[in-house]
Amino acid sequence: MRQTTATVLRPPDPPDLPTSDDASAPVPGLRPWVLRLFFLSGLSGILFQVLWTRIFTYLLGGTTQSVSAVITAFMLGLGVGSYLFGRLVDGPARRPLLLYGVLELGVALSGLAAFYAFQHTGALYEALYTRAPQATVKWLVFLIAFVFISIPATLIGGTLPAIVRHAVTRAEGVKSALGRLYAINSLGSSAGAILMLGLVWAIGYEASYHVALLLNSVTGIAALVMARREARGESTDARYPHPVPLPEGEGRSGTEGMGGPPAQGASARVLLPAFALSGFCALAYEVIWFRTLDFLLLGKLATFACVLSVYLLGISLGSLVLSRWSPPRLGELQLFVLFELLLGLLGLITLPVLSLVSGLGQRPLTIATAFLLLFGMTLLLGGLFPLAGKLYAGPLRLLGRTVGNLYSANTLGSVLGSCLTGFVLIPWVGTSHALLLTAGLNLVIAASVAGLALRPLPRRHLAVGVGLAAVGLVGWFSGDWLTRFYERAGLRPGFHIIAQSEGSLQPVLVAEDAHGERVLMGGPFQSGETVPARRQTQRLQAHLPMLVHSAPRRVLEIGYGVGELARTLQLYEPELLHIAELDEHMIPMAEQYFEALNEKASRRANVRVDVMDGRHFLKMSPDTYDVIMSDSMILASEGSLRLYTQEHFREARRHLNPGGVVLAWLPLNAGTTKALVILKTFQEIFPQSLLWLPLGLNTQEAFLIGFRDEARIDWEAWREKFERVARADLEGFGWGDPAVFFASFRAGPERLAEIASRVPLINRDMNPVLDFLPQDPSREIAATVERLVAYEPGFIFEHLRAPPGGQESLESLRASVQRVHEADQHFLKGVAALDAFGARPPAEVLENAESLTAGFREALEVYPAHPAAAVWTGQVLGLAARVEPPLEPERTRALLEEALRHNPTDLAATEALARLALQRGAQDEANKYLARLRALSPYSRLALEIP
């Protein structure tokens, strides 16, 4: 979960700043160079926060606890700094600009120390991991983050009261100055969020961190130079002569020229806790927004930066506009109440509006609507700070203290909002009810401030507010809007959610379509499904390393998914199957709703489960393994991309026993450029590697097998395990032939090294280039597959070892592998013909079936057991079940039976034949197809309805 300090109060804004809240007169002290300094301060501050989060999670694991530890420590430091330095800057010997410069330099120095301390944190955490319970270690992570981050964060927190105390010289300018300073700082933070993308892409996290340090150093030195010039009485800008400070004790009271109540009485007593609760709501909304927008934007670094930038830009503009504008008939306190009311109403309509708009099926429109709602909320959040500043400000001589009080109260509320929403509210009551409670809290704040501080109470306005809140609540409870949004924004058409579980990390969803096909979702990302194509990938992925390794006894699987991979690994009866799963809700949901696929594999006696980030687990664990592999995770989220860095592969190699292997999923359909970067990154660590690209139900999913030692396969051990375990498990998917298995090896160490030498990029923790690479055109991906399949497969026999008596069987295998290779070329011609034909109605495809399947039939003539050629021929013929208007029943039946002979995994053909048999009353024939349907799709509605 990604959270930021976007809404805590670190301020900003453009030039031309008035001295009164009447926006027309310039404000002494708010010189352009002051604004530029505070802009840079905001920019570097957001860079620090984001980079601390990224670097910390790379070093200590991408768990929600470690992310929250960084955010909480950062925000607590801001609050403590604003409180302490707010008092210091009001002291008798105050020189706020000097203090500001010292603070900025202190941020640079302490940030540098924190960075190098991070480099050694891994060893400390490893020591804690081996000596303390896992649950305790999570909290020790927080303490580590607090120590390393709180010092620079405290100094950052002190910059706001210091710059405000320097800039504001008249009490009547408080609202304008606070609003504009807040605006310019937030604007700098917004720019920093976007700049971060370019910096990380160009120079990586480590160099970007040093850029942030440089910005702080420049800001601090510039402030010290200006402070020295002012101490000499020199003006830094002829248009803004240095103001003569008011003698201590002679500042104007907060009541003069402010048009509102003083910093005493009911309004002040109510305002500070109200503003703290407002900070709670602000960060709670941010947590919920990031979680919700994941389903639209898929949670990559660019998404994070865009959302954060919009959030900060809204706050900046809201603060700027509200510092210049006051409605003619509303005072500041009434405006504060109105903003809280509007925030509550926007919170109530967010999910209904997003759900309704997403139902239109236009994702860009849904995204635009989401950002419009987000921008509206942040405008209101930005406007609260100048309002609260003016309402709460006391005597000018205590301005630093009052600003520090406001800032620290809001920050404390923000800390609680971030932590409690992510770790308590969402896991306990779910995202939807967490949003409802947050919106309700805004309404309570509005009602409380109005009831306790507004005199006389405006009854007409109160009635309007109550009416709007009632309408919002009625709309909220009129439907399950969050579930509808998940279905429309995150699922394929036709799927509906049948179960969901909310945790601090993500929602885990189970969805089903009308035929009984099920999908398991971890947030917006698919973790597994019941369709044969995905099940084939899971089984092949599990069998491959277990067959290649001569005697796999200890196995590590990272990620559980639906659990079919773990079930398949268990067929080899390893002495230990160790599962590292990041989400504690994933395995229970999988074993409740996908038991037919996983057979509750995690509950067997030889299984250990660690709920933890897989790459972090490898870094911490002292255990070693014969086989290490990851589930086939989609290459979209940052969590999955972390499993493809050079550092992760290096850790995996370190945990291999002699003769051990690591398997990495290589989805070419994610993009050729990405696949080549992964190949290069993997090959750098595992120079002895083999690339395996099977042609079957999926033709664009490859696997890399990295050997710790020599790339060697024991032929006798392989054959014994294949006959004992794999053949029976794979025959139903067309993979019962050893020749097809070995013909799928497309490249060995020499060829992979030659391919890698042409790739200029490596994916590293501190330079995650995979985050930024574009999706390649489908034609380029197909061309890459063709080039790989064109390579002669004979090289694999250089890596097969057999005793002298086994040479004859190897020669027979070699001849079969060559025939499979020839059939592969015919198969690719068939694929090209289908691609050239394009997307046409099923009736047109069937009319041209003979020519469209010619390449596949030629492949079957060369090698009758070729699984891909058979499958694709069957898929073309299987369109008979979907022709509109329907064909004659007998012709449909004949085509579907032929389709099923070629492709026994065709669900649509199997279901259609079962229905045709039931219509004719042929119960025995129907039972045959229903049994096949249950084997392919255990939750098929038709198969479950008929005993």
Automatic annotation (TrEMBL):
Alphabetized UniProt keyword annotations: Cell membrane, Membrane, Polyamine biosynthesis, Spermidine biosynthesis, Transferase, Transmembrane, Transmembrane helix
Membrane topology label: Multi-pass membrane protein
Catalytic residue positions: D631 (proton acceptor)
Residue ranges of the region described as Disordered: 1-24, 235-262
Protein name: Polyamine aminopropyltransferase
Pathway field: Amine and polyamine biosynthesis; spermidine biosynthesis; spermidine from putrescine: step 1/1
Binding site for S-methyl-5'-thioadenosine: Q506, E581, D613, G614
